[in-house]
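Consider the tokenized backbone below.
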């Protein structure tokens, strides 16, 4: 039962509660692999990779070669750019279980050349295996799409990519349907009609914090911007794609909007400030750093809500060529984004994003800064200095060498790209795929 509760708290992002339970159990001398495993997972979610590695290694000491532990440890090494260590673990996992699709996908993410002919044949056999889940089949077809892309077979690439997205959506169908409903019907139509009740408690003065929220569409340079500002000499902790705001919203309206008796016509989007503040404290912890980064891109919907609680918040809006964004999203595996599996859904989401971000730029011009990815890559020094000045944080020449820093950690698909030097924006990269937008 406790195992189920911990999983539930982790899924809800209630990290403070999770840590308190686990640490109390350890104090009572109930130390075991299960406790250390969940501590490792919790610190991974909080972007504290040092503690995450520490606890996963403790697990490995107690029970060497546990697949669950090795896989999670491989993900931490992947996020740190410790490619060789991650590759060894994924290969080890495949040696333990040759049907481990997630480890093949891990190897593929590190380097497409890791998918040898033998591995490709194995994956093809697995794709026809009835015991393989829909999501695992989705991962296999995604790998195949990239192998076809490597051979410049565009038609086959798109065929496998479309199948991958379809399987991914169906693999978590109820969640994806509910998520699409929220983005298409609820927040899009109520972002400027939110009502507030109650008041913020004064025992934690949110006015003292200067959080930085990176917002926009995926594949628009957000990880690059996060990596740059993480290198400031100021004490800045990045929570990464944390989704604390969205989860705090669902704490209040989720049971209402997903009820069978939900009355959309009479729905009022109401936020109780006291409860919302409690949700934020639960998820961000005690917020030790006065400046922190949250790179949950969907927060462009939530700008008004955020400013209610963090009046000093700065929003870095990253963007690129609109068509490139659409294609870039479709070409990625982002299973948690319900709207990313179909070109029409991506276009609808992106068009709503344009409307909403333009609304808030007029409403809060001093809190939002536009960052054009093409400009940033053309003149990284000048553009990064503008970003640092806007955020009131210290810039130095070492910032531009962020890709050489050992402390760089990201859980996004861009974990390899940010370790290369900043290249000039490629304006022709996605042009062969523009026909999909018709």
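A designed sequence for it:
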């Amino acid at each position: 039962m406790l195992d189920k509760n911990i999983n539930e708290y982790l899924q809800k992002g209630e990290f403070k509660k999770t840590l308190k339970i686990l640490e109390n159990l350890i104090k009572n001398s109930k130390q075991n692999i299960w406790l250390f495993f969940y501590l490792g997972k919790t610190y991974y979610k909080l972007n504290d990779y040092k503690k995450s590695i520490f606890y996963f290694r403790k697990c490995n000491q107690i029970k060497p070669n546990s697949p669950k532990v090795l896989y999670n440890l491989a993900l931490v090494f992947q996020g740190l750019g410790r490619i060789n260590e991650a590759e060894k673990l994924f290969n080890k996992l495949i040696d333990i279980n040759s049907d481990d699709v997630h480890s093949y996908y891990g190897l593929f993410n590190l380097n497409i050349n890791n998918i040898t002919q033998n591995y490709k044949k194995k994956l093809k056999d697995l794709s026809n295996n009835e015991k393989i889940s829909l999501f695992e089949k989705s991962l296999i077809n995604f790998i195949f799409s990239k192998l076809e892309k490597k051979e410049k077979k565009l038609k086959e690439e798109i065929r496998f990519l479309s199948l991958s997205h379809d399987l991914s959506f169906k693999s978590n169908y109820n969640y994806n349907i509910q998520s699409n409903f929220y983005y298409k019907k609820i927040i899009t139509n109520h972002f400027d009609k939110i009502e507030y009740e109650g008041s913020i408690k004064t025992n934690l003065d949110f006015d003292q914090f200067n959080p930085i929220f990176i917002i926009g569409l995926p594949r628009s340079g957000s990880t690059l911007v996060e990596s740059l500002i993480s290198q400031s000499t100021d004490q800045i902790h990045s929570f990464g794609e944390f989704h604390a705001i969205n989860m705090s919203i669902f704490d209040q309206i989720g049971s209402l909007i997903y009820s069978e008796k939900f009355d959309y016509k009479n729905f009022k989007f109401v936020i109780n400030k006291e409860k919302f503040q409690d949700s934020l404290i639960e998820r961000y912890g005690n917020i030790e750093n006065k400046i922190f980064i949250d790179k949950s891109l969907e927060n462009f919907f939530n700008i008004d809500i955020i400013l209610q609680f963090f009046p000093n918040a700065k929003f870095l809006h990253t963007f690129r060529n609109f068509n490139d964004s659409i294609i870039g999203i479709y070409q990625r595996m982002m299973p948690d984004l319900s709207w990313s599996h179909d070109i029409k859904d991506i276009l609808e989401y992106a068009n709503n994003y344009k409307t909403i971000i333009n609304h808030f730029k007029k409403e809060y011009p001093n809190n939002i800064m536009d960052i054009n990815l093409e400009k940033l890559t053309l003149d990284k020094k000048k553009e990064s200095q503008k970003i640092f000045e806007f955020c009131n944080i210290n810039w130095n020449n070492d910032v531009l060498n962020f890709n050489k820093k050992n402390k760089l950690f990201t859980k996004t698909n861009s974990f390899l790209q940010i370790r290369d030097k900043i290249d000039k924006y490629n304006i022709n990269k996605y042009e062969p795929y523009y026909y999909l937008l018709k």
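The chain has 19 helices and seven strands.
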